[in-house]
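Writing this down once: the sequence line spells out the residues, with the fold written below as integer tokens. This is how one looks:
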Amino acid sequence: MSVKFSEVLNFMRGKTIDVRMKSQDDFFVEDVISDSRDVKPGTLFACITGEKSDGHKFVKSAQEKGACALLCEHEVNCDLPQIIVEHVRDYLGEISSLVYNHPSSKLLMVGVTGTNGKTTTTYITRSILQAAGIRTGLLGTIIESDGVNEKDADRTTPESCIVQRQLANMVKNGCGACVMETSSHGLFFGRLKGALYDVPVFTNLYPEHLDFHVTMENYFAAKKLLFTNYTKPDYLGAANFDDEWGKKLLAEFPGKLRGFGLSEGASSRVINSKTSIDGTELEIFTEGFKNLTLHSPLVGDFNIMNTLCAVTAMRGRVDDEAIVKGIANVPQVPGRLERIDLPNGACVFVDFAHTPSALKSVLSVIRKLSGNERKIISMFGHGGGRYQQNRPELAKSASEFADEIIITSDNARDEDPAKIAEAIASGATIPYKTILDRPEAVKFGLDNLKPGDILVITGKGPEKFITIKGEKIPFCDAEAVKAWRDAH
């Protein structure tokens, strides 16, 4: 995976502000990197101007590590060849795709966007593809997998040069497909540039990240970029027919998206379902196909929608036998209604739900499956620097389905955890207790569970750190629960 620098220059002809070179000698570019700490010989170093750091300040370090050229936004005092553009991110993905030999063109690309359900939908979709015998990479909130190696994800959608490198690794490792979450931030900042998708998927849209996008219209516009800017010519995707924003997409892209939902009019819909604590039985109708009867180990109405979404996206891409097998073998998604049984007959669910609608979905499912005879304790906080209006709404959602609330900290970041908790508490209409130290809150909740009780810990899902004042403190809800269980 390498190209001559002259090929990069030829690709960028007419797109640059300037090119600065002290020599006309050609050379090979073997890698594209935006973090100077990862630079190695043969690297084109991309100087990204971000909110917290400026890559131009790390050119010296990159040069010392063997960088062969720069992609930058202004001239830098060094001897390296410099491609100067107005905004590095506008071209980083496409240059990376060129260097890595256009990997997305060699993969069946599935991109899932929306507010809720992205992670679970990607896991289900990957399970279907792998049941069809297609080795499949996965990029998302929880893990990055190139088909052979797997690691914890740093962010839902990484920088475009990382995305392209991961896609190239998937091709190298024999993958035939990639399934990935595509966040609104990733789409807005162009982290998907250089990638094109065969199957773009839209799950739903609820108020979230409005501290950044400000309005739902802006939030939707960022999500819509997946369909307008990042699709292959013959793409066929899926969008939620039951969601008002999904309907907008279906109307705007007729014939290119299948509508899935529970209501009449959806071209792919559930016609029968039965869910219990042990799993879900489904019968799915899709126009142009025979009905499918499926069994999934996942529970809850929202997982019915996640399953329907994945099935709709994959029908016609793989045979029905693979879909049936893939749904039956869906693995437990870490931090997505992850159940942990305790020795005394109580149980814990750990889930990533961090919006009022997501919390309501989780708690309503657990209440429905457990009945009114079991006590439900809802534990959660809210992230600092996030949409503050959600804080009392979270407590209102919990009050509707739980019996008690334990308010704790989430990733408070630069905010005061006590003030976040106070804002949450203002929406509570059932008994609540505030324990700001999350490890102590989890221990308190576990220590006080009686047989049959259910503790629902939400907000962080599989995350392994708590971020406060720039410090990352190791902690994982599920790991803490399992450690307590094993000690008792």
In short: The CA atoms of residues 466 and 473 lie 5 Å apart. The longest strand covers residues 268-276. The mean pLDDT is 95. The longest helix spans residues 356-370.
